[in-house]
Q: What sequence folds into this?
């Protein structure tokens, strides 16, 4: 039996750093394995924001693991950290990632939400 999903509280929503946008973008995820080898996987996003995304992954990852994310329609690649990793079991799992640096333009969204602002120096 799976646990029911809970709706985040208003306080949790207002504490978010940037608004979430439901969007499906193809991405290539690379994870470093032993030595200099990389394990790639092409997948898609479920939700994006200026600080990261929620993606589907078959590869097993753990919290705080570093990944490289490339938007398939763009040339840019960003480093990210796993915020929430795979659950036990087989198949695709939802994995939350966070860019090591905010990247509001990474997703190529024409009308980003007003709170998707670049960092000020």
A:
């Amino acid at each position: 039996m799976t646990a029911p999903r809970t709706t985040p509280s208003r306080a949790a929503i207002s504490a978010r750093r940037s608004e979430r946008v439901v969007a499906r973008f193809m991405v290539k995820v690379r994870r470093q394995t032993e030595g200099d080898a990389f394990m790639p996987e092409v997948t898609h996003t479920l939700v994006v924001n200026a600080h990261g995304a929620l993606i589907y992954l078959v590869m097993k990852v753990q919290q705080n693991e570093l990944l490289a994310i490339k938007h398939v329609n763009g040339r840019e690649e960003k480093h990210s950290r796993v915020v929430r990793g795979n659950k036990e079991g087989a198949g695709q799992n939802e994995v939350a990632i966070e860019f090591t640096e905010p990247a509001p333009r990474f997703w190529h969204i024409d009308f980003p939400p007003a709170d998707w602002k670049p960092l000020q120096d």
Notes: The CA atoms of residues 61 and 118 lie 28 Å apart. The domain at 18-99 is CATH 2.40.10.220 (Thrombin, subunit H).
